[in-house]
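Propose amino acids for all 206 sites.
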């Protein structure tokens, strides 16, 4: 029940952010002389079809997830000063956020246009340079993250008033304890790890 509450809260805040910023309109793409371009796979499907697949948990969800991963990979390759547009967001998180946007859009909105709203939110906070991936452990629990993301976590905690000497990305026991305190105070599961609900709360819930 707790995870459902956290996920619903995350989706609601994210959708509000998209529409307040006016980011739900289709994004601009490179195209031919007539403004047309080919769309493959899940990008052609409608929000109605995607939402139904998500709610029923059908095998098509994996196809939409694969489409997102391919789209992000292509954007990583072709955008200047870009290493990873989704440096901490999992595919599952991006699917949930796209579903939230689809719930606010017309049923016949194309999946590619719905995901454009998610993309526009992610892009400004993209990872612009390659960063090492390291493990973070707290007891038997473990996660992995880019060092640059851990630096951002430390800076966000400092902005919240926590005493962190340097945002080096070295996520030691002091950082874990302070993250657990932040999680507890914000109604999150106190894992001490930079998990999805925690990262969303730190970076998006302002």
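Proposal:
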């Amino acid at each position: 029940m707790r995870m459902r509450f956290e996920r619903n809260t995350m989706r609601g805040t994210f959708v509000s952010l998209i529409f307040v910023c006016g980011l739900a309109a289709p994004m601009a793409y490179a195209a031919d002389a007539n403004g047309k371009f080919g769309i493959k796979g899940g990008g052609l499907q409608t929000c109605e079809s995607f939402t139904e697949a998500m709610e029923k948990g059908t095998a098509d969800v994996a196809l939409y997830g694969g489409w997102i991963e391919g789209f992000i990979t292509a954007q990583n390759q072709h955008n200047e000063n870009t290493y990873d547009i989704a440096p901490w967001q999992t595919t599952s998180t991006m699917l949930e956020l796209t579903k939230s946007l689809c719930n606010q859009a017309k049923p016949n909105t194309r999946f590619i246009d719905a995901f454009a709203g998610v993309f526009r939110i992610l892009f400004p906070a993209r990872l612009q340079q390659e960063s090492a991936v390291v493990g973070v452990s707290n007891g038997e629990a473990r996660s992995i993250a880019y060092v640059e993301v851990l630096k951002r976590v430390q800076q966000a905690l400092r902005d919240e008033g926590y005493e962190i000497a340097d945002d080096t990305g070295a996520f030691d026991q002091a950082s874990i304890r302070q993250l657990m305190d932040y999680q507890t105070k914000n109604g999150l599961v106190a894992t001490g790890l930079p998990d999805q609900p925690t990262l969303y709360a730190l970076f998006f819930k302002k």
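The mean pLDDT is 85. The first strand starts at residue 133 and ends at 138.
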